[in-house]
User: What shape does this take?
Amino acid sequence: MNYPFNVRVYGLLMDAHNRVLISDEEEDGFRFSKFPGGGLEYGEGLLEALSREFSEECALPIEIVSHFYTTDFFIKSVFNESQVISVYYVVKALEPLAVPIKESPYDFHDEGPVKQAFRWKAISELQPKELTFETDQRVAELLIQSC
Assistant: This one.
């Protein structure tokens, strides 16, 4: 039997005001909020993939500061039949963030099947249920506990 795995890598980017960057997205009509990052491509390492994702999504070069969390429970993808394994790192911006920052969730200005917007969320005000996926919710709980 074939059991596909889906390896994902995400970055926790915090600013000087103790806020974390959240990505609000819509793909084929499905809306979700998560930490910035995405899927590992064949031939990439985790750190290379995370740097690529921040470059693609935020036009932002980053420094990977430290490992934060790796999925330690079973989670099935909401998009396909794969098992998701997610790895989270604390990251630091090497340049000022140049993408537009929104105040409210899902404030999209793009057209097409894939939309994305970014917003800062104070860690002290972060509610895990604001994030769509169970693994991101667990990371939010850990992030709140660590601050």
User: Anything to note?
Assistant: The chain has a mean pLDDT of 93. The longest strand covers residues 83-93. The longest helix spans residues 46-58.
